[in-house]
Amino acid sequence: MTSVNSEKLSSARFAQATDAFVEVFTASVDFDQRMAHQDIQGSIAHATMLCACGILTVPERDAIISGLTQIGEEISNGEFVWSIRQEDVHMNIEARLTDMIGVAGKKLHTGRSRNDQVATDIRLYLRSEIVQITAQLTRLQTAILDLAEQHADTIMPGFTHLQVAQPITFGHHLMAWFEMLRRDRERLDDCAKRINVMPLGAAALAGTSYPIDRFMTAGLLGFSRPSANSLDSVSDRDFAIEFAAVASLIMMHLSRFSEELILWSSAQFDFIDMPDAFCTGSSIMPQKKNPDVPELVRGKSGRVTGHLVALLMLMKSQPLAYNKDNQEDKEPLFDTADTLINCLRAYADMVPHITAKKANMYAAAKRGFATATDLADYLVRKGMAFRDAHEVVGLAVRLGLETQRDLSELTLAELQGFSPLVTEDVFACLTLEGSVAARQHIGGTAPETVKVAIQAARQLLDNV
């Protein structure tokens, strides 16, 4: 009789032992052990349900739960011995449980498969990661609001095409960042709804003939409901792709923040001072202060987007139901969650210590004819068609370029030479303060409007 590897719980079908290389190549325990506590959580709920349905006895249930609890402690304490021969986190835990409590341990897998088990574990894992991500998002949003409140009336140039466009305030600019993160938070909350559906009980692909109660298990695990179709339950990774998509959007936003911080902290802009604790020096140039944290976050955004593409490619050609390909879903997900949490934490720690250089921001806003649009609007209010006003202001800007003066530095006579509609009151709209204060509508740049937006945002955070 041919000898097989009797240590493996799934070895009875095979007449030959698994090739040593293949055993290592196909094993996932090196990375999926990260879901050990989720696996134990799911198994305890499964055993509780099996007992309630009369499939396990009360002593069997109690032995299983006690054994799983002890295994959880061993894992937390670093005492658990992981074996590649048992392939994955599920088989390692089940093998250890059987060693501890005997036959009752072998009954735990009744009415389920590793297919629905791993799908459940991933959902439980992502659910817990979203709690941490949300906490870091909230910290960052709060830090942005605090900084914006300090600078609701700090004037700086607003840009389009990276050219000076119109004056805004630093607080207003920061509130744009807040709005980006607000949408991210909404997407994350929405994604969590689809993650919070339980596949356990779908078994390998066709459900089980045992009289299980999936609603009970879902309730024990805090899922909103059990999944509706057994085939889809074990093969679906939409929720993982959606999580990666949300994470990619958040990282893209952090990358945009990073680009601005990097520019603003450069000698050419000199708008802000980055905290020393988040910068590094040069090994050769003693004067350098490099914004390494924003640069690294900008770089890591590509890493997370790459994981999203990897997950999409992983799933695009798979037939129903479960396939071994899906083992490749975990490492991208784990790294995505880790990277996102760390980047959000870095930003939440860094933003409160950013110092705005108000005088430099103000001086930059004075360059580039930032109030040109205000002059056009002034002429429109005097009765001129906007397109005509646009042309008149263009001529005034040309004079300013030729004489190296801002519009506010042109004389009344010079401005009246472009249009007789101009009167002494024109200079009120040509100041940076007047320009910023004039936009008092919701979403506008007026300092009081920005302060109202900040307070509304604080209430929003308090209510979520």
What does this structure look like?
- This protein has 464 residues and is mainly α.
- 61% of the residues lie in helices and 5% in strands.
- It contains 20 helices and six strands.
- The protein has helices spanning 20-26, 29-32, 36-52, 58-76, 89-101, 103-107, 114-150, 170-195, 214-221, 230-235, 238-264, 292-315, 330-350, 358-366, 372-381, 386-403, 412-416, 426-430, 432-438, 447-463, and strands at 155-160, 163-169, 197-198, 225-226, 272-273, 355-356.
- A two-stranded antiparallel ribbon has the order 1-2.
- It is elongated and about 100 Å long.
- Mean pLDDT is 95; it is low at 1-6.
Average pLDDT over all residues: 95
Structural class: mainly alpha
How does the overall form come out from the CA principal axes? elongated
If you compute it from the alpha carbons, what radius of gyration comes out, rounded to the nearest whole angstrom? 31 Å
- Cα-to-Cα separation, first versus last residue: 65 Å
Tally the helices: 20
Amount of helix? 55-70%
Uncertain segments are 1-6
Largest sheet properties: 2 strands, antiparallel
SS elements, strand count: 6
Major β-sheet strand ordering: 1-2
Sequence of secondary-structure elements: HHHHHHHEEHEHEHHEHHEHHHHHHH
- The fraction of residues assigned to DSSP E strands is under 5%
Keywords:
single chain; 464 residues; mainly alpha; two-stranded antiparallel ribbon; two-stranded parallel sheet; 20 helices; 6 strands; elongated; disordered N terminus
